[in-house]
Each structure stands twice: as structure tokens, then as C-alpha cells.
Amino acid sequence: MRWLFWIYLVNTIFMLIVAIREARRPAVALNCLTVGLVLPIVGFAFYLITSNPPRIRQERLTSPDNESDPLPDSFSRSASTIAQGLRHFTVHGLRTGQAQVLTNGNQTFVQLIESIENAQRTIDVEYYIYRYDRIGSRITDRLIQRAKDGVHIRFIRDGWASRKFPREQIQRMMEAGIECRTIFPLRFPWILSTLNYRDHCKIVVVDGKEAFTGGINVGDEYLGLNPNIGFWRDTHVRIVGEVAVDLQTVFESHWKIASQEQKSIRTSWNKKAEDGREPIPGPSRRAGNIPVPGDPILQGFSVEVGAEFGVTDAIDFAPSEEVLRDAYVQTLEGNPRISTQVIREAYFICITRADKTVDITTPYFVPDADIIVAIKTAVARGVRIRLLVPHPRHVVPGVVGPASRTYYGELLEGGVQIYLYNKGMLHAKVMVIDGEIAEIGAANYDMRSFRLDYEVCEVIYSTDVARELTEQFEQDLIDSIPLRIKDLEKRTGPERIREQAARLLSPLL
């Protein structure tokens, strides 16, 4: 039985190491110590995989020396205070530009494809999820064609979430001249130290002066075309002007840490298969950025997918009037390599500096104690806070949904209004403050987005953008169910146990 003693001794040493290293994060330390007690030795290995920052060389995009001009006096006190408080977390301070709110996949993909068609020099693409389905194949084909037209294109995908993107399509892209890289690919030895750190960004930059970001990846589900998911509610944003340079900077930083894809020798079978492909329509050369009704690319896509899935109304590609709103914008990057949790700090500042209203839309709500206190304190100051989250029947399976529900009772008692979106999958990540500040990005309210993932978000100062997002929020409330304390009291015993067990893991999510 001597071996049991040695296992106990070694495990005790490991747990002491965890306790010392995580002294500044007691909740994380407690969870890791619990796992270590339940699973000796294995628990410590799990801790190393999930808690060690990736060991890569990368420049820090945020700086305490960041300075920028203040907002004009026409903005409220809360907007000026938030802009001032966020200046040290931004990429390049406060920028001027224009913003266009894009609701759901149909508007986003129409505008994205149009911008790809109109690109003159460069296209930089970075996605957490990039599938080779209907919309993914269409965008891939257009990128390949534009590369053949002479446009310089770079492509980054996340090594985990986009691991199923076909290797042969990467080869097609590279043979057309597209530079392809992967963030933290699933191959030895990188998988051992970077498995838990992902690139959750969704970024496209065109010609260095037009950029897209938000919650929408590339996949049919974002068009509501996945029959297992159904309707998909999301929000993206297109920004034009000098602010696009900031997203370009974020892309450049991620490009440096990504692993280069290797070309493989083409087989005669692959060459024959490509020779048999249907020719891709040539690029359109229209003036302006508005898709026209007769566009063969978008019209063909709509008819093709609609015929296959029988849901033509879900992919209405009829062009809508382009609306670009003048705005001041700050770009923030969440980076697991730095100790400051930039996204979390930004959320905290926005909530604590609000004077009148805060509307939050998020698919994953597992915040830390500081965010909860910030929300409850804001309500106590007289701020109306509304939280829109998915209905339990539309939550992606896992521990996040049950963990989220353990926070609702405390918030309801504190005066927060909570609504459960019941029309389909809610994936938008938006916060609107005092009717003139909006935050749109890829980050959720959980420890993964705060601490483990590369994230990006835009803080937009514009009454017009805030009004559009508030109108969309009000529309979403029509498709939602208000949550009451009595609804939580109806939960069964097994449901409560499952939720509390999931809550224990929340510092690791």
C-alpha cells in the first residue's frame, strides 16, 4: 500500500502548487483543488491544460499609455465616462467611422459577399467556425475567384471549431494564391498546451477600410437552415473608415501566432474532380455596395438552398437599403496571454457607469461575482437592466445552460428584468447603454470569453446605432417569455441538483 502514500504525497504537492499559483483567483483555485481531490494526478494534468496561458510570442495590443481625444460634448456624461474608462483597454483609442447593424445571417452574408466582390486590394478573413456547407462553399468559391483576380487574401481558422473544414478546400484556396493559417491546430505538441485556448473572433477586413465582426460565423445554421436548430437570431456589425484599421491590427496580431498550412501534392483524382466542377460566375463590377435583385450569385444561392431545405422564407436575400451611421468606435481585444481580462473589465465599466438603462443580449450568461454585483448595484442606483437569454429548450447542450439558471433568482430579486427568447437559438452578443452606447462582439458573459479565448468587440458611441439595436431588442422581447421568481420555484429536485453542479464548474467554463 506504499504506492497509495506516494500518490497522496505527490497529489498534495500538486494541489499546493495550484493553490499558490491561483491565489488571486480563489474560485478557480477551489474548483481545481476539488477536481484534484476527486481525480488525483489526473486533476493536476487537467489544471495544466486548462489554466496555463499559451506560450507564444505576441505583442500586447492594449496599453496603459493609450490616449485619444474625448467624445464631443453632445454625448452624455455616462458615454464620456465609459469612453474615458475604456481608453487603456483599446487597440488604438477612440476612432471615427461609420457603422451598419446587420441582423441575422441573411443580411450579414449579403453584405459580406458584396464587399468581397468589390474588394480591390486585400481581404483578410478570420473565423472561429468556418464550415464547408452551402454558404461556406459559396464564400470559399468567391474568395478563390477573387484571389485569381489578383486580390491578396489571407485566411485564418480556429484549429478546434473549424477542424472539420475539408483539407482539400484548404488546398484549393492555397493553389489560388490564398495564404491560409490555423490558430492552435490540433496536432502535437501544440495540442498539449493550447487545447483550451481558442480563437473565438469573427473578423473580415476588406481593403483595410471596411470590416465585419460580431457573433456570426460561416455556416448554414446562421441562416436558420439547420433543421436540428431552426431559427437563428444573431447580430453582426459592419464598420467603415479609420476604425477598420483597429480590426486589421487585431488580425495581424493573430496572423503572427497562427500556424501556416502546408501544401500537399495534388493527386490526379483531385485534379480530375476539380476539372469537373461547375464554373464559378465571374466577379460583379457594380458601382456602390448594394446587392441588386438580379445578382446571379446571391439569387442563385437563395434559390439553390431554398429548394434543398424547403425554407425559402428563411433566406430572404432581397436587398435592403444600406444604412451607415456616423459613430465613434473603440476596438477591444480579449487575450489569454495577458493578466488583464479586457472584455470583463469593459463589461464592468459599461454597467457601473450607466445612468439610465442597460439592455444585455447574450447566449451564455455565467459571469463572475464582480459582474453580478455590478448589475445589482446599477439597479439599486435606479438603472433599468433587462437581460435577454435563450429559453432552456433552445440552449446548446452542456453545462452552461444549467449554470446560467442558477444566477437568475438572485438577479430577479435584485430588480433585473429577465426574458427567455423562445423563437429559436439566440446567439447575439449585444449590450446597449443609456440609448447612445452599444457593445457588439463575439464575447459571452462567461469565464471562457473573459479569460481563455481570443475575443474582439466594438464599443460604438452613436444614438442612431443604439436606437436600431434597442428596436431590435424590443422586437426580440415579443418573441420572449418574461421570467418570474415563481417560474424558478417550479423546478424539480433533479433540475436544481444539476444546475448547482454545473454552477460549481462555472469558473472553468
TrEMBL record:
Q: Which Gene3D superfamilies match?
A: Endonuclease Chain A
TM spans, by residue? 6-21, 28-49
- Give UniProt keywords alphabetically: Membrane, Transmembrane, Transmembrane helix
For region Disordered, the annotated ranges are 266-289
Which Pfam families does the record cross-reference, listed alphabetically?
Answer: PLDc_2
Identify the InterPro entries for this entry.
Answer: PLD-like_dom (IPR025202), PLipase_D/transphosphatidylase (IPR001736)
Residue intervals of the PLD phosphodiesterase domain: 195-222, 422-449
Q: Identify the CDD domains for this entry.
A: PLDc_CLS_1, PLDc_CLS_2
Q: Which PANTHER family does the annotation name?
A: CARDIOLIPIN SYNTHASE (PTHR21248), PHOSPHOLIPASE D (PTHR21248:SF22)
Write down what this protein is called: Phospholipase D-like domain-containing protein
